[in-house]
Amino acid sequence: MEFTKEFTEEYQVFLFDDESWNVLKYDGETAYKDRIQKLQGTKAMDFVGIHDRDLFLIEVKDFREYSVENEWRLTSGNLAMECGQKVRDTVAGIIGAYRTTDIQKWGVFAKALVNTNSTIKVAIWLRYDLPRHNKQREKVRANVEANMYKKQLNWLTSRVLVTGQDDNYIPDLQVRNLLRVQKP
After folding, report:
1. pTM for the whole structure
2. Does 166 score more than 90 pLDDT?
3. What is the 8-class DSSP label of residue 43?
4. What angle do CA 20, 22, 27 make, to 5 degrees?
5. Is the pLDDT of residue 139 over 60?
6. How many CB atoms lie within 10 A of CB 142?
7. How far apart are CA 1 and CA 24, in angstroms?
8. In three state form, how does the secondary structure of 8-36 look?
């Protein structure tokens, strides 16, 4: 395997195997930045990719060192709702980019969305520090399970992965951490 497709997101470097992935940093693409994002309130997944015949929509969240500030997003279902909105807007954006910009680039993603032989998988790459108190720890763990995300995404797919460095369920992907400045 040759991991040459490299993207930086949230203090992490994502390395996708060049032979098995066709992947884009969706929220960095010109079609998104210059067209789709101009619609006020539009949200975006971080990556869109094809692996085998599966379409992956990948969102990266790194709450390490900011777990206290983001605990409510994890425990309230807010993050699941936010991801649901990002998936919705990304699906619409892929179709729009295919119809109005580069057919070659976006065609493989648009076709995977409508092809019933393709599986659509949503992956939330989540990094967070667990609270020190056992009850809080159990609550956070319970609330980041895939079922919360599946409720928001059942209109599109039941294939939802909540994954991260310790339990990476995304095939042919390696992730490296970057150094980050410590909080004072």
Report:
1. 0.88
2. no
3. -
4. 140
5. no
6. 11
7. 19
8. EECCEEEEECCCCEEEECHHHCHHHHHCH
